Each structure stands twice: as structure tokens, then as C-alpha cells.
Amino acid sequence: MADLFRDHHLSLVRLALLLTGDRAGAEDVVQDVYARLHRRAARGPGRLPAAPPELLAYARASVLNACRTLLRRRALARGLVQAPQPVWSAESDAMLADDRRRVLQALVRLPVRQREAIVLRYYLDLSEAEIAAAMGVRAGTVKSTISRGLDALRRRYEEER
């Protein structure tokens, strides 16, 4: 578990950040996932995949699921009270070039499944098979989701101009 944290914590936080658009929320999601994995591992052998690649895939899927839950809760809260769009902090703006900031803002506005597929493919560089496994869909669905997502991303990016 320590190796997973040391080697992949940053990439898991990046995944959550790209899906949620909120750094603090992303860090909370990943921390909660690590806590759940640790509790599960403490229950005894066989509760988690033993091989590092499978454990990483399990952690990624857990982060995806936790982000989905967070986004569902936000959508529910927006239905009750209109919440503002995620705001990029001054620190984030300083770190990101204008084009990258616009891409990220457009990405955050995509439907969740399209955002997940694009982030897994182009930010984490996973194969279509790995994305399909993480998302629980077929490889063909991954291809069409990415294609539609990229079209929508282009449109939203142009709107940001």
C-alpha cells in the first residue's frame, strides 16, 4: 500500500482534479480512497489485488467511483441551491497557461463519462482496454465516448475564447 501511495498518489489526485475541477475535493477523494483501501487490506489477505498493476487499476476505479459520487452530490446540491461553477484559484491560474486553463475549464463542463474517458486516455495515457476495465464498459463504448467527448470539448473550448 505504501508503494501505491508513493508511486501513484500524484497521478490519482490529478485524475480526481480533472474529473471534479476542485483541488481540495480531489485530495479528499483520493485520501478517502486510500483510507478505504487500507481498511480493506487490514481485514486480511485476499481483500485487495496483490499485484501492483491490479492494485493500481483497483485504486483508479475507486477514485473514479468516488468522483462520480461527489459529482452526483454536487448535482443534487445544485438542484436545491444554485452552486457556482468551480473557480480556479490564483495559484492554479498562475501555474496554468491560458490555453491549458481553457481546456481544463471546458473539460470540467463535459458530461462525467466523457470527461472520465478523456482524462484516462489523454492525461493518464491508459489504453482503451484499461479504460474499459476502469469504467466498466466495452472498448467500443470507450472509443465512441472519447470521440463524442473530444467533439464536445472542442465546442466548449471555442466558447471559452
SSE blueprint and pairings:
Blueprint: H1 2-20, H2 23-42, H3 52-80, H4 90-95, H5 98-108, H6 112-123, H7 128-135, H8 139-160
Brief summary of the model shown:
The protein is an all-alpha fold.
Account of the 3D structure:
The chain is an all-alpha fold and 161 residues long. The chain folds into 2 domains: 1-87, no CATH class; 88-161, Orthogonal Bundle (Arc Repressor Mutant, subunit A). The protein is 79% helix and 0% strand. The protein has 8 helices and no strands. It has helices at residues 2-20, 23-42, 52-80, 90-95, 98-108, 112-123, 128-135, 139-160. The protein is globular. It holds the Pfam family Sigma70_r4_2. Belongs to the sigma-70 factor family. ECF subfamily. Keywords: DNA-binding, Sigma factor, Transcription, Transcription regulation.
